[in-house]
C-alpha cells in the first residue's frame, strides 16, 4: 500500500465511491462489487494488487509525491507546513503502508529514527531504490498492519498517508496494534479518503457531484476477476466509525483535519479535482494520542 499515496486509491481512479450497480469492466480490469471478504482474501488481493501496480503507480505519481517529501493528501498538504507530527528529531517513528517510503525518507532527513512498513514487496523495491538514490535510509519492513512485528511501546509516533487503514478488513484491530506499539504520550496520525466521498460517483467532473451510494454501506468495495477472486479491496467507514475505533483502542482524538483545496492547485488525482475540492472535503486526517 503506497506511501503518502492516497493509497486509498487506485492510481488512475480511486474507487472510494463505486457505482451502486457494477458495470461491465474494461479488458484487464476487475469487475467491481460490494461484498464481504475474508481476511485471507483481503490480504492476498492487496499484496498482489500493489505488487503488480507498483511500477505504474510510481511512474504516474512519483513526481507529485517526491523522493523525500511527506505529502498527506491529493490536496497537497505537506507535513513540512502542517507539522501534525510535532518535532520528529530524535523520535522513533513508524510509517504504516509506506509504499515507496517518500514520507519516511523525509522524516529521516528531519532527524527521526524511522521504520517504514508495507505489505507489498513491489512497493518496498521502489523504497530501496529511492534510498540508494537519496542516501536517506529508513529501515524497511514487509509485514501486515494487523500484526505489527514490534514489541510494546516501541515508537514515539506512528503515521500513514492513505496507507494500510483503508485496505485492511479489520481497521479496529489496526488501531489496537498501533496503540500497543506506541509509547505513552505517543502520536498516531493517519489520512484517508474523507468518508463522505463514498456517497458520490467516483468522478472528478460534474458527474461526480451526484450522491448515489449510501453513506452507511460498510460492505467492502471489491474488484474481482471472472472467477470471483478478489483482485483489489478497499473499505469504507463513517466518521463515527473511525472515532469509535480510536476511542475503543484507548486513544484521545486531538484533531480532525479536513484540508481545503488550495487556490492555484489544478492537478487531478482520480476523483480529486479543483471542482469537487472547492465544494466538499476529499481527505480526513485523524490526529490522536496515547495517554501519557
Q: Give the radius of gyration.
A: 18 Å
Mind telling me which CATH architecture this is? Answer: 3-Layer(aba) Sandwich
Query: Helix-strand pattern, N to C?
Result: EHHEHEHEEHEEEHEHE
Runs in which pLDDT lies below 50 for 5 or more consecutive residues are 1-5, 7-28
Q: Give the overall form.
A: globular
Distance between the termini: 31 Å
Topology (elements, then pairings):
Blueprint: E1 31-35, H1 39-65, H2 79-82, E2 92-95, H3 102-109, E3 113-118, H4 121-134, E4 139-142, E5 155-161, H5 171-181, E6 182-193, E7 220-224, E8 230-234, H6 239-249, E9 252-257, H7 274-277, E10 283-289
Parallel strand pairs: 2-3, 2-5, 3-4, 5-6
Antiparallel strand pairs: 1-7, 6-10, 7-8, 9-10
Architecture overview:
The protein has a single domain, classed as Rossmann fold (3-Layer(aba) Sandwich), CATH 3.40.50. It has 7 helices and 10 strands. The protein is α/β, with parallel strands linked by helices and 292 residues long. The radius of gyration is 18 Å and the shape is globular.
